[in-house]
């Protein structure tokens, strides 16, 4: 897949899944624009970065974004797992803020440039937990369920602007965000065995689906929530 002359904005490209998407897109020739609080020393050369805290900002300096954007990935999010009775309303608000309102802010600031390209893709990141009930996931599942709804509604609203809107829904993926779930060999093995395909996800597993959904290879796909989950989302293991 070639992204030569394509401008792609990523929010959350300094780590984990977003970082793998930055690397894959840059390797495919894209001009990559990143929003996050910190930079990564693993970025390929040429990534344009603006320090941005999703919780408090909703504009970027004039001239940071190109006139036309061909893609947007919102890879900021959380995995806040607690028993329901230990989750506070603030936990729910914080997860909603980071996962949903942050995506709304970034989509709104990118929308004029996405429209000007005449053919663009937006990829949001949901979770397997928004489609399958999982204990301790109520806050993140509620926020990611909202991402699924946002994906469908925006796909409908933006189709006439030739902007496709899709989401990927990962299961447990080896990133800094998930480190506390994978920090012993026992936890890693148990997590791998819970997945029908017998392993946890890699950042490349998820990034390759993101890159596909931004590319012309998925030109007739919009309003889809694609599970990239080792089979966790749809396979019963009785
Ligand atoms: N890893 C998993 O198992 C898993 C499973 C299902 C879904 N997901 C979802 O996948 C997405 C990516 O997660 P990940 O595991 O790759 O996480 P990660 O490694 O922690 O990366 C998160 C990215 O978001 C940025 N970010 C976080 N808070 C921010 C803020 N307030 N303002 C601006 N940027 C912020 C971080 O950059 P800075 O720190 O530099 O700001 C980083 O680039 C999330 O939506 C997550 O919910 C992950």
Short description:
With 238 residues, the protein is an alpha/beta fold.
SSE diagram, text form:
Blueprint: E1 7-11, H1 16-27, E2 31-36, E3 48-51, E4 71-74, H2 89-117, E5 120-125, H3 138-158, E6 163-170, H4 185-194, H5 203-214, E7 225-228
Parallel strand pairs: 1-2, 1-4, 2-3, 4-5, 5-6, 6-7
Helix pairs in contact: 1-5, 2-3
The chain binds NADP nicotinamide-adenine-dinucleotide phosphate.
NADP nicotinamide-adenine-dinucleotide phosphate is lined by residues 12-18, 36-38, 52-55, 75-79, 125, 127, 170, 172-173, 175-178.
Helix content: 25-40%
Taking the sheet with the most strands, its summary is:
7 strands, parallel
Widest sheet, order of strands: 3-2-1-4-5-6-7
Shape from CA axes? globular
* Unreliable runs: none
Ions and ligands: NADP nicotinamide-adenine-dinucleotide phosphate
Structural class computed from helices and strand pairing: alpha/beta
What distance lies between the first and last C-alpha atoms, to the nearest angstrom? Answer: 39 Å
Task: Supply the number of helical segments.
Answer: 5
Mean pLDDT equals: 97
Rg (CA only):
17 Å
Give an overview in words.
With 238 residues, this protein is an alpha/beta fold. The chain has five helices and seven strands. The chain has a seven-stranded parallel β-sheet, with helices on both faces. Strand 5, helix 3 and strand 6 form a beta-alpha-beta unit. The longest helix is centred in the middle third of the chain and has 29 residues. The relative contact order is 0.16. The mean pLDDT is 97. Bound molecules: NADP nicotinamide-adenine-dinucleotide phosphate.
């Amino acid at each position: 897949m070639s992204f030569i002359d394509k401008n792609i904005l990523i929010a959350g490209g300094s780590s984990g899944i977003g970082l793998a998407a930055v690397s894959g897109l840059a390797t495919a020739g894209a001009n990559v624009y990143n929003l996050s609080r910190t930079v990564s020393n693993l970025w390929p050369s040429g990534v344009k970065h603006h320090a941005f805290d999703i919780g408090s900002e909703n504009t970027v300096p004039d001239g940071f974004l190109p006139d036309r954007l061909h893609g947007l990935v919102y890879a900021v999010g959380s995995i806040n797992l607690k028993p329901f009775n230990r989750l506070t309303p603030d936990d729910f608000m914080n997860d909603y803020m980071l996962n949903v309102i942050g995506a709304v802010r970034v989509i709104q600031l990118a929308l004029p440039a996405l429209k000007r390209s005449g053919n663009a893709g937006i990829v949001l990141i949901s979770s397997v937990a928004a489609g399958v009930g999982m204990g301790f996931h109520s806050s993140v599942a509620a926020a990611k369920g909202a991402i699924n709804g946002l994906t469908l509604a925006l796909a409908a609203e933006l189709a006439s602007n030739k902007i496709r809107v899709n989401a990927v829904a990962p299961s447990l993926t080896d990133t800094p965000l998930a480190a506390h779930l994978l920090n012993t060999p026992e936890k890693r093995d148990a997590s791998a065995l819970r997945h029908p395909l017998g392993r946890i996800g890699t950042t490349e597993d998820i990034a390759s689906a993101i890159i596909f959904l931004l590319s012309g290879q998925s030109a007739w796909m919009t309003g889809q929530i694609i599970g990239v989950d080792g089979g966790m989302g749809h396979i019963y293991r009785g």
